[in-house]
Structures are given as structure tokens and as C-alpha cells.
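hey can u run this one w/ adenosine monophosphate bound, need the C-alpha cells asap thx
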Amino acid sequence: MKILVPVKRVVDYNVKVRVKSDQTGVELSGVKMAMNPFDEIAVEEAVRLKEKGVVTEIIAVSVGITASQETIRTALAMGADRGILVETEASPEPLAVAKILKALADREQPGLIILGKQAIDDDMNATGQMLAALLGWPQGTFASKVDIEDGTATVKREVDGGLETVALTMPAIITADLRLNEPRYASLPNIMKARKKPIDVVKPADLGVDPAPRLSTLKVVEPPKRQAGKKVKSVAELVDKLRNEAKVI
Ligand code: AMP
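ok here u go:
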């Protein structure tokens, strides 16, 4: 069984993002970029399934600018077998990415597609769900445990107030949550080996998809600064302030 893992290049999670002065987005020039952390978890899960003998080939896909090849290389160094870069000029919206992934799924016929639950740059949490709808496949989102047996993927999902277990008939879509696993670091020999693994480069038009945006960003601003806290001398004073100043009780 083949498995497809979409990996997005985003601002590294350690970077404190700054809004551009013209409020059109966040500053990307000179900023450290990395694989979306939930996608690292998705790649790790795919590699573990391959190590168990459930999966025969892992294909890492990224949709984005040429530099997204670096993100694919990271996935290859973690254990993916080959990569596909769908090259675009800008970072496309979830619907365009989902259409591109559908076209690749039609071509590659994977048994499973594992995505991250969300990309940490724009927090859309939409691509996996849209892809499941476009393909007409079952979906197990926010997965914290995955077991594959006899053509069925059993997925434990993190839902409000507990864990829900669903059984998906494959082919299926899974989106990875934080507790699914702890991704490995790529070893130096594996980073070297990854350089020789193939990456195909295609354009959205080759897949019959128009990635033009449907949404327009009106403006991006910094969150309001947090105000300094106040010290109170007694519970009575606290209750008074909550009631009469904050008006929350
Ligand atoms: P989102 O719906 O944008 O929050 O993204 C959810 C997941 O979809 C990500 O964790 C990735 O697995 C996948 N994804 C989104 N955008 C891209 C992209 N440009 N290239 C590859 N995968 C993507």
C-alpha cells in the first residue's frame, strides 16, 4: 500500500512572527522556515507504518514555491521514499491544495493519506476535510492513535471531553494531532541518503487545477498587547474588582 503525506513549508514554530508594516501579511524575508509540526507527526506515523510492514511506499508532497523542496527533503530524510513538488508562485489556499492532492491521489492511488490537522501559519484546519469530501473517502481527523488491519484504519480521535474511536474503510484520510507520536530527528546518514531520493516537480496546470485564490486578505494586525496585572490584598477586594471593574461575575 502506498501512502501520501502532504507536508507544508511554514515559518519555524520557534520564530516570533512579525506583521508586515503594510498589514498585508507576516514578514517572511530572512525568517527561518521549517516543516509544519503536525506534518512531521504525519510523516513519522507513515514511517512507523512502513516499519511495521503495513506500507510499502511513502510519497511526500508539498505545494508551494521552489524552496518547498527543502521540506520534502526533510520528509525523505525521516524515511519517505520519494517526493512530489507541486510548484506554485504563492502559498495556495486549502481548497486549491485539496484539489491538487485529489488529482495526485487519482494518479498515485494511495491506500491512505495522512495530513497534519492544521498548518500553524494560517490555522485553517481545512485541507484534510476538503480532500476527504472531494475524494468521497472516509476521514479520521485529530488522530491520536492509528491501527491498520484488513483494509480498515481504526483511528482514536481527540474530541472535546474525550476520545472517539472510528473505523474507516480504506482508502481513507487521516489528520494527525499532537499526541499521535513523537517525530524522530533525521540522522546524518539519512540526510545524506535523502539527497539521492527522487523529487518530481509538476505545476498545478499539469494536474488540471487552477490555484488562483478565492479569498482576499483584508488586513493582518498584531494581537492587542496584554495589560499589566494588578495585585489585590484580599479575597473581598478580588471579588469586588471582578464584579465592579471587570464585570465578569
Ligand atoms: P490547513 O488546512 O491549511 O490547516 O492544513 C492542514 C494540512 O494540510 C497540513 O498540516 C498539511 O498536511 C496539508 N497542507 C496544507 N497546505 C499544504 C501545502 N501547501 N503543501 C502541502 N501540504 C499542505
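Residues 141 and 150 are 20 Å apart (CA to CA). anyway lmk if its weird
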